[in-house]
Write the structure tokens for this entry.
Amino acid sequence: MTKEIQWRSRTWVVFYRAGHQIEAQLIRGAFQQQGLEVMFPQSFLSGGLGELPGAVLEQELFCQKQDFQLARNLITEYEKKRQLDWYCSTCNEVNGSSFDWCWNCQSAHSGNNS
Ligand SMILES: [Zn+2]
């Protein structure tokens, strides 16, 4: 079942369940580079939606309904690449392979990914 939510006059659907908040943020960053808008529960909460059912408080990622297929394609790519995640040499945060800089401290990827 696809979960849908109405927010800001748009329909959002769950396209992925992230393992944790950091992964959700990584995916959102990668998708924004592709011009795709991504929301996850914390986004909704900080955006003032305020009345989400408890079940939504997993790390579910939402995209706009019309972007669903594209989002699924990107997730497939993401899952292929996730073994190539790299660790920031400055703050030790883990970053997705598609990132050229650390999401956390904005340090450039040193490029010594083995
Ligand atoms: Zn860093």
